[in-house]
Amino acid sequence: MGAARSTINFVRAVMATRDLRARRRLIRDSNACVRLMFLHAAQEAGLTHALSSPASFDELTVRLRAQRRELLEALLALGVSVGELRLRDGRYVLRGTAIRALASVENDALVAMLSELLLYHASVYQQLAPRLRGTALGEYLDEFATVIARSSRVLEPFLAHFVREMVPARGPFRILEMGCGSGVYLRHAAERNPEVTGIGVDLSGEVADDTRARLPEWGLGDRVEIRTGDVRGLHPDAVGTFDLVTSYNNIYYIPTEDRV
Fold first, then answer.
1. Higher pLDDT, 188 or 232
2. Cα 141 to Cα 33, 148, 202, distances in angstroms
3. For residue 226, what is the DSSP state?
């Protein structure tokens, strides 16, 4: 009887809590945030790769060269609590769909997306208050350009279909891509049509260099040119004419008054 009364009193207290729905919503959102932070930490620490096969705590300590065992223990416990890891018979295994996807080398875009969310986007909001009051906005391109170029490939399955729809299957066809990033959509266009040629332009010298280095691997060394700079600064006489001009996920880099 006493236990039942205690339960009833507890329920009443909970129901009387001010802003109960808001608290529940924030707790649910914080759980999602913690999951993202765990996934990023597991990836950066090498835990995802270390668990390509089941391992005990001691084995993981060796694989990760962990000096602070208590931190590794806490990370593993967190992974179990959010459902991304499973502990069975003293051995840890990858359990969640997210961490198993991150373990695949084919999913580099997902790995980069986590880095972009937690390192780039989070810092924007962390610094927003002083910037609202006039401090410098900061320059992110040099630090995060390659991460953003990798992360943007999350949309590749959808945009690749769009490219195939826009590019004819045969005949000479020239493309200018603004903010070409990894160059993957120029590659899709060239695979669609063996006569496609074009120019990709990117603000980041590091991204442009990486993309330029991939062109021979893709067989596009003599069909596609990668340039560094602002496309608005390219003189028409220096680039010629094009059948198609593309810009994927880049409109927010251009001030509204300059977009036309």
1. 188
2. 25, 9, 11
3. E
